[in-house]
Write a structure and sequence with these properties.
Length: about 140
């Protein structure tokens, strides 16, 4: 039963991260509508993009644990101790990379198409609409 409870808790949190990621995208669109601030809008959209990458990094850790829990459930392990139930943080700490590795994880999430694709067009549109692009030609 422990693995099932852990799976439900992790899956709920995984979906909450997805909801926050969509809220980030909506906030970026809202910021784009507020074009009075120029460079500030670009900076805020970039910040939302980075924030989503960090959220997706956390979400990916939950996803890794979900896969381990599902593997234990598929094998029919009923003993929570044998299955390593409730070991999310211990498992992550055992495989925690150094600072460069953590930054690389965030960068990988930042460049994922599902993360980057909404922000790149928004930033390009904001850059064009604010007239900031004209300065690079002179």
């Amino acid at each position: 039963m422990d693995l099932q409870q852990e799976w439900v808790a992790l899956q709920n949190k995984f979906e909450q991260y997805e909801f926050v990621a969509w809220a980030n995208k909506l906030a970026a669109v809202f910021l784009l509508a507020q074009m009075n601030a120029g460079r500030l809008v670009l900076a805020l959209i970039a910040l939302l993009w980075l924030q989503e990458a960090v959220l997706k990094t956390f979400q990916s850790r939950l996803g890794e644990r979900l896969l381990k829990v599902e593997q234990g459930m598929r094998k029919g392990v009923t003993d929570a101790f044998s299955a390593g139930a409730m070991q999310l943080h211990s498992d992550w700490l055992a495989s925690r990379p150094g600072t460069a590795g953590l930054l690389a994880q965030v960068l990988r999430q930042l460049l994922r198409p599902t993360v980057a694709l909404p922000y790149l067009p928004l930033m390009l549109f904001a850059w064009y609409r604010t007239g900031l692009w004209t300065g690079i030609w002179y």
